[in-house]
Design goal:
binds 2,5-anhydro-1,6-di-O-phosphono-D-glucitol; 5-stranded mixed sheet; 8-stranded mixed sheet; 15 strands; binds manganese (II) ion; globular
Length: about 290
């Protein structure tokens, strides 16, 4: 079975980019080992005003320290840090990350993950400029789902700690699953119309509370994940830089799409690292449906 390292070489990824992807992906092992002793919430909040889980800060610190030691990274923009961390000015890449996505599920041992995007140059760029996007999933298997702009492949960590290919050229089927965040009674009319339309067409609800795990289900079976705008949160809950862009890049590379309900979020140049965006991500049919509703 092809390893992650061999795949990246076959894709023509630069050696330094491959080294960085492998270095981050390998942190899945210490991150998984840290769960048992980091089950609680810290007494701190992140820039999005959310109380941080111990695993949020543990993973953030661990990955950032690993990146600092690599000498390959210019900036790190993390969901769990107010400001961008400046490392090696002359280094080729910047990393954006959600070190632990789905934190509310840590206590209930459901699938959570780490979302990463890598840019050449600075970290505040449109998602379409990503050189690599991937996420580690801490489920029954430890997997990495990755793209370096040549499609999407999925790898699983074997007993020797090597990522072996599970699937190559992943394509999002049309599908009929949907997962939507927010509170139904607070959905705006456009979103409520969209959900009732796809439910009338037979769509089934699959929503766990972990974006990365819910997206992986959509990547596999098709359908859509949505975190819509509401009166209280007109830009929804999820972050453009750390969540929407890497996942949206992967979705587009798998023949799907991402949207804020009007147009692709991959075109947006971020103004602030923690800015939020409404998210609809999944199969093309679902995205054109939401974009066609006024
Ligand atoms: P994070 O744990 O990185 O803050 O992300 C949580 C996000 C996303 O993973 C998930 O889909 C969504 O928040 C769940 O929000 P609700 O609890 O409001 O459904
Ligand atoms: Mn998240
Ligand atoms: Mn997070």
């Amino acid at each position: 079975m092809t390893t992650l390292q061999e795949y990246l070489k076959e894709c023509g990824a630069a050696d330094s980019l491959s080294a960085l992807i492998l270095l981050i992906a390998e942190q899945a092992v210490p991150i998984r080992e840290a769960f048992i002793s980091n089950q609680n919430y810290a007494d701190s909040k992140n820039s999005s005003g959310e109380t941080q889980a111990e695993m949020d800060t543990w993973s953030d610190t661990h990955i950032t320290n690993t990146l600092a030691a690599s000498g390959l990274v210019r900036e790190v923009a993390s969901e769990e840090r107010d400001e961008i961390v400046h490392l090696v000015e002359s280094a080729p890449y910047s990393v954006v990350m959600d070190p632990l996505d789905g934190s509310s599920l840590i206590k209930v041992n459901l699938c959570v993950g780490t979302i990463v995007g890598i840019y050449e140059g600075s970290s505040l760029q449109a998602g379409k400029n990503l050189k690599a996007a991937f996420y580690m999933l801490y489920g029954p298997m430890t997997t990495v789902t990755v793209s370096v702009g040549k499609g999407v492949a999925i790898f699983a960590l074997d007993k020797d700690g090597v990522y072996k290919m599970l699937k190559n050229n992943v394509r999002i089927p049309e599908g009929n699953l949907y997962g939507s965040g927010g509170i139904r009674t607070e959905w705006l009319e456009k979103h409520a119309k969209f959900i009732s339309r796809i439910e009338n067409e037979g769509a089934k609800n699959r929503y766990s509370g972990s974006f990365v795990a819910d997206f992986h289900q959509i990547l596999t079976y098709g359908g859509v994940y949505a975190y819509p705008p509401s009166e209280k949160q007109p830009n929804g809950k999820l972050r453009l830089v750390f969540e929407a862009n890497p996942i949206g890049f992967l979705a587009a590379q798998a023949g799907g799409a991402i949207s804020n309900g009007v147009s692709s979020t991959l075109e947006i140049v971020p103004e602030k690292i923690h800015q939020r965006t409404p998210i609809y991500v999944g199969s093309r049919g679902m995205i054109s449906k939401i974009e066609s509703i006024e």
